[in-house]
Amino acid sequence: MVFKVSKVQTTPFEGQKPGTSGLRKKVKVFVQPHYLENFVQSTFNALTPAKVRGATLVVSGDGRYYSKDAIQIIIKMSAANGVRRVWVGQNGLLSTPAVSAVIRERVGADGSKATGSFILTASHNPGGPHEDFGIKYNMENGGPAPESITDKIFENTKTITEYLIAEDLPNVDISSVGVTNFGGPEGPFDVEVFDSASDYVKLMKSIFDFELIRKLLSSPKFTFCYDALHGVAGAYAHRIFVEELGAKESSLLNCVPKEDFGGGHPDPNLTYAKELVNRMGLGKSSEVEPPEFGAAADGDADRNMILGKRFFVTPSDSVAIIAANAVDAIPYFSSGLKGVARSMPTSAALDVVAKNLKLKFFEVPTGWKFFGNLMDAGLCSVCGEESFGTGSDHIREKDGIWAVLAWLSILAYKNKDNLNGNKLVTVEDIVRQHWATYGRHYYTRYDYENVDAGAAKELMAYLVKLQSSLDEINTIVKGARSDVSKVVNADEFEYKDPVDGSISKHQGIRFLFEDGSRLVFRLSGTGSEGATIRLYIEQYEKDSSKTGRDSQEALAPLVEVALKLSKMQEFTGRSAPTVIT
Ligand code: G6P
Ligand code: ZN
């Protein structure tokens, strides 16, 4: 059939500014007539027709409510805007890291390569008719659109008057693999539905030693558990962990992707991944012996949480431990790491590894896009953030399943001559051994959610002023706790990208102490109501006889200092944080 292109008149919607990870709104906002269409057309216009005509686009996401409708709309608009072909993961499912992999690796039957992608996800936010939907655009390198593009998209949303759509194009069946061909005024247009996992699984197999991991998983001493929290990771977990690596079916929890994530909050942390946390023996005590290893992912499978038996690995430690073991345990890195990077509020555990192994090291603002630039320039192999993100230069997004495979590789490597021995080296052993070698960074994060935006601004303005006077700071510190060392440096973090020279200002206030402790204050860039103040507290302990303490207990003096320094209660009226991680 030959479809027709319609020009539909429209008027702008307010608030279509893409945040750190695209446009996220309640479903009821997205379903308004023209709302999604305006944003998609504004994106096409920002990319310019020259880049859109003839392009190959990937359109898929984490499968949350409204995704299927959104995919059909984007297909019709792609056709009308002269896109040559659209690639859709079966049932519209592709994890964010898999999209990045597909853009970078997949080659179509006719040799075509993708030039970009609409990813339909609101990441770790809940889904369903009353919850969140989201859309973001990723570029040719597989990474999120840079600010220069997202700013243009936003400008376009403010002035849009019409969009193009092939209204008579029939809906494409995205539930089965295959190609559907159409003809339009500008020539052929195809939609190819492909297996969501194949390209990603192939990439993972080229990075890790699957044979070695398989041996670990088949050891009777090793038990394993993976919780996809009903997110899109479920579409990969069975293929990778069960089919490829031989894990038992029963080791998969909540691995059927659901439009509403089973009513849960698909965020892999100690608060929301309750079922896994209990199974791992970290919640209420149970009679069943917990597995040796547990992990969880968020809705779009780019975040990860790593657990051992009755043991939590902080994301800051996780990236440091992966970096320290990568060359030995992961074939992809066998010729060495190009460099490592962490976001500013992430603990300095990675810094110590970088120093010891003489690796290039970068400290970037919060947000994955900063790592992408370093990777494109060949400066960084492994990176991570305290917010449960870990990844490498195999793609340009953080990668939840990659992190699990990295940990399984380290466990398999450490146990390779001992799989039939009495006791395996455990996750906890690896972390404690790491602390003994490099010292431990006790770490905690206090979140003050939904604080009055004005009050949060005032608190930050007060800290900006305070950081310029070390004398004043140290008087407050001393007055609060005599057992805390003194502040030797304080600043407002600013980053100059070593690749493109761009400068990012106002990225948080840092207080650096003589003994290596740090306090960091910043406002969250992803909240949806009011403001969220994040307070990151970290203390370095080199003495290996003192690295086994409870972290909240070890950090109590610094917490006291932080609350006094920031006048937290005075500004916010809050006597306690909403979440502690
Ligand atoms: C998203 C980004 C991360 C960031 C996290 C926390 O997941 O992809 O790069 O670390 O949000 O951001 P926030 O501004 O809320 O602390
Ligand atoms: Zn996510």
From TrEMBL:
Going by the entry's taxonomy, the superkingdom of the source organism is recorded as Eukaryota
- Which terms does the record give in the GO molecular function aspect? magnesium ion binding; phosphoglucomutase activity
Q: Which part of the chain is the Alpha-D-phosphohexomutase alpha/beta/alpha domain?
A: 16-163, 199-307, 316-417
From the record, give the transmembrane residue ranges: none
In its keyword annotation, does this UniProt entry include Phosphoprotein? Answer: yes
Per its UniProt record, what Pfam families does this chain match? Answer: PGM1_C_vert_fung (PF24947), PGM_PMM_I (PF02878), PGM_PMM_II (PF02879), PGM_PMM_III (PF02880)
Kindly state which reaction or reactions the protein catalyses: O-phospho-L-seryl-[protein] + alpha-D-glucose 1-phosphate = alpha-D-glucose 1,6-bisphosphate + L-seryl-[protein]; alpha-D-glucose 1,6-bisphosphate + L-seryl-[protein] = O-phospho-L-seryl-[protein] + alpha-D-glucose 6-phosphate; alpha-D-glucose 1-phosphate = alpha-D-glucose 6-phosphate
The cofactor named in the record is: Mg(2+)
Report keywords, A-Z: Carbohydrate metabolism, Glucose metabolism, Isomerase, Magnesium, Metal-binding, Phosphoprotein
Give the SUPFAM superfamilies listed for this entry.
Answer: Phosphoglucomutase, C-terminal domain, Phosphoglucomutase, first 3 domains
What's an example Gene Ontology biological process for this entry?
A: glucose metabolic process
- EC number(s) per UniProt? 5.4.2.2
Q: Does the keyword Phosphoprotein apply?
A: yes
Give me the Gene Ontology terms describing cellular component.
Answer: cytosol
**Assembly, per entry:** Monomer.
So what family is this one in? Belongs to the phosphohexose mutase family.
- Please explain the role this protein plays, according to its UniProt record: Catalyzes the reversible isomerization of alpha-D-glucose 1-phosphate to alpha-D-glucose 6-phosphate. The mechanism proceeds via the intermediate compound alpha-D-glucose 1,6-bisphosphate. This enzyme participates in both the breakdown and synthesis of glucose.
What is the name attached to this protein's record? phosphoglucomutase (alpha-D-glucose-1,6-bisphosphate-dependent)
Lineage of the source organism? Eukaryota, Viridiplantae, Streptophyta, Embryophyta, Tracheophyta
